[in-house]
Specification:
Elements: H1 2-7, H2 11-24, H3 29-47, H4 51-60, H5 64-75, H6 79-108, H7 115-118, H8 125-143, H9 151-157, H10 161-172, H11 176-203, H12 210-238
């Protein structure tokens, strides 16, 4: 049954999934805008101990895509894909932590933190297991068009943005123990997703699409260069 699930995939579905994954993990301005908005929501949610706001922040955060893209790069032994995806993830994490620090300094220094903060600062094997299961679900749903609508739910199940918010809050409050615990949780969740999706992508035999990946990366790079050139042109016209 397992073999049928992974082999019952069309080449078109595989190509579409790879294209979507690389496109969604490209470090465009819109990507980092959504990251910034999601971390602002998550930080306020943690500060006021409101789980609904935190869930909303996870729904709009595109953090899952560069993590899955790293897995794809490892499976395909594509250093270029790994490096660009890692850059996106690293910059996203930095933007998130800095954003959380600023929000806390402005609004949260005198707020007593509740269970939503504490639950993001206590890493355990259970959270790693949840991340692993989420990675299996996300990587499989990505390739199956009829399951793609489940991705937002999967993004909620694995905690990525809230631990970064808790890290920033801990740093702003000079609580290094809590900050380090939250950051470790983020690393555990990221590693669980990467490991799980590597298994799924390998079983789907996505390695055979490595030439397509190279073309998509080149296309995305050219599109980014055009966007940057257009932005610079507009700035010159404004002056």
């Amino acid at each position: 049954m397992v073999l049928v699930l992974f082999n019952n995939l069309t080449e078109k579905d595989k190509t579409r999934a790879i294209d979507s994954l690389i496109s969604e993990s490209t470090p465009r301005q819109e990507f980092f805008l959504m990251i910034l908005l999601s971390i602002l929501m998550a930080t306020f949610g943690v500060l006021i101990d409101n789980s609904a706001v935190i869930i909303g922040s996870m729904l709009i955060a595109p953090m899952l895509y560069p993590i899955l893209s790293i897995s794809l790069g490892i499976v395909m032994s594509n250093g270029r894909l790994i490096s660009r995806s890692f850059y996106t993830l690293l910059k996203s994490s930095t933007v998130s932590i800095v954003g959380a620090i600023l929000v806390t300094l402005l609004f949260g220094l005198n707020i007593d933190l509740g269970k939503e903060f504490l639950s993001r600062t206590e890493p355990s094997i259970i959270y790693g297991t949840i991340a692993f299961i989420s990675g299996l679900a996300a990587s499989f749903a990505l390739v199956k068009p009829d399951l793609s609508e489940t991705l937002p739910g999967i993004a909620i199940s694995v905690s990525l943005i809230p631990p970064l918010a808790a890290t920033g809050i801990g740093i702003a409050k000079l609580d290094w123990y809590m900050a380090s615990g939250a950051l470790i949780m983020f690393f555990i969740n990221t590693a669980g997703i990467i490991f799980a999706s590597m298994i799924v992508f390998s079983m789907m035999n996505l390695y055979v699409k490595r030439n397509i990946v190279k073309k998509i990366i080149v296309r995305e790079r050219k599109e980014m260069e055009r966007e940057i050139a257009k932005a610079k042109k507009l700035l010159k016209l404004d002056k």
